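Long-time lurker. I teach an intro course on protein structure, and each term I like to show students one example going from raw sequence to a predicted 3D structure in token notation. This year I'd like something fresh instead of my usual example. Would anyone be willing to generate the tokens for the chain below so I can use it in lecture? Attribution to the forum is fine with me.
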Amino acid sequence: MSNHIYYPPYYVKNYWWKFSNFLSYFFDGNIENEKDFAYTPSRAEFMNALGDWAIDGLEAQYPNLCETIDERMLIKQPVYDVFLQLEKRFADHYIFSTEHDDGQEARNQAYKFFRKLFNVIEYTYQKYAKIIELYQDNYNTLMRELQTETESGSRYNDTPQSEEVSLSFEENRFTTNLTKSKSITKADSNTPIVKIEEIMRNYRNIVIEWLNEFDSLFVEEDNI
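-- Reply from a regular --
Happy to contribute to a lecture. Here you go:
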């Protein structure tokens, strides 16, 4: 006689919310809509959208991601840039589910997702932001031509030779003619267009690598 107990299948319906729902709540206060950016918000508008989150969610928990400009707290430029890129890449991806089709339950999950998102930004900020900053700050340097510098010289001495003073002939007072030359040769490693493409390609690769760090937070529709 079998002691196994078989239970009938039990189905739980989950309601999934997209990153665009989060963005709608983030900027408009309505999590039931899906945000479709008609414009790119400035850093100041970004902070205005955060509202109380700017104090409780950023200044207190992520001070290294913020800076003060003209006595106003703003997120640092690389954080702002990567956030906008996340919106472009993951807007239609799902980020969390709720047991009920309930806005308040979703808003609670949105706060939790906010912390997850900025945790990843904080973990990866030092690695990628510095590289991006170097590309931006040194763009003009990277575009410069390569140059090599060569120096040469010759000395003619017609002072009578003698064993006693031969060791001092290198001094200038024994030199009749002294010739020095210096040449600088500049050569471009490639055409400006090719160099720009190389710089931008490498820059994009760094940005893409940074965005890939966030993959675990997002779920594509086919994977639900």
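Some talking points for your students: Residues 138-150+178-212 form one domain. Helices lie at 19-28, 43-50, 53-59, 77-90, 103-137, 139-142, 192-212.
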